[in-house]
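Contributing: when you submit paired examples, paste them exactly as shown. First protein:
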Amino acid sequence: MLVKLSKKTAGLIVFFTLFTGLIFLFQWNWFKPALQGYLVQKSHRIVTIGELDIDFSGLLNPTIKFKDLYIQNASWSNEYPLIVAKEISFTLNGLQLLMNKKGKSVDISMKDAEVNLESLSNGLRNWRITDPTYRGIGKYTLLSLNVQRSTIRFNSRVTNLDVTAIVSPNSNHAELPCKIQFMGNYGKFPI
């Protein structure tokens, strides 16, 4: 038994099918120069992206994937780059992006990366890339962080905390695939 569809419904089905196919097959690297230029212009930092891809396999939760990402640190921060990552990806909640203008959540995965985060007592934070002088509440909430073979450093001049976490493979224990080594200082006290 065939169902008869109106021209409008059939047109919407064809449009949705073509649009979905375009999203899945699109070469997102074409946007790489525009994204790099936008980030350089907004942040006043050097930004280089080796490869850019957006994965919609989570349907409403797109994952933005970068390979060979480099973001220079803020001019007031330490000499280390903000991010140097062989692979880093950000998974966003699509419904939150569309409906919630204030708070959005993100899941971050990184491999072979070095991240240097720093905050000043006046509220400046070096991870604010598109609006470096913004000192208010963040727009994104980090829900999960998946790290492999990477180093994350956090230096807060507000709390006088300087801590580094080094994540590396743990070949000694099969049930614990990685080990995390912490080092640093809280004021005058070593961690």
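Second protein:
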Amino acid sequence: MLASAGCPSPLPDVSKNDETTDGAETTSTSAGQTGSGDTTEGDTTGPPSATTGWPDGPRTLLLVVDTSLLPRTPLQAIVHTNPGEGTVDLTLQFLSLDPGSKTTPRLLVGEVYDYAGVAVNGDGSFDWDMGEVFIPGEANPGTGADVTTTVQLHAVLAGDPVFCGTVAGMVSDPLPYDLEGSTHAMIEVPDAMTLPIEFPVACP
């Protein structure tokens, strides 16, 4: 089952990265494309896009998903963003977590999911339908079980965190579960090996 729950009070965000996680990255194929866990670093001071309100250039984000199933045991993933004119290309890869842990070992595991041309609204918000994703047990700190689920993520520009919002979807394996009431937050990180110890799990 998925880890974490509800909409608990967000943990405080941090302005610096306090932890460095080392480990090999996983390369795999998803949705007919071959992706890799390679990270993309970007200048965080670029001018905003005239059409979306996004900063220009690619970004690397830590995605934290707090599901309504198990409280305070969030799933984590690395997301790469590359904005265009009114769209954004996204990739997603989950991070490994020991049972009950939020910070270790956080190595890239499983498939890389690629999403090209996701529509971005004029205010910078977007709806990200991930379709069906497989979350390996190594990335599930709640139960350690493999999980198959659909995910629909609504994200708004929040500043700090960069994005936050709601998560919907339906777990199909190992047991049916509706993800309604789940939340997420995304914060910018230098790369997939330099991650904060504290982070929000929902909008401020």
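If you have annotations for the second protein, write them as plain sentences, like these:
The mean pLDDT is 81.
The domain at 55-191 is CATH 2.40.160 (Porin).
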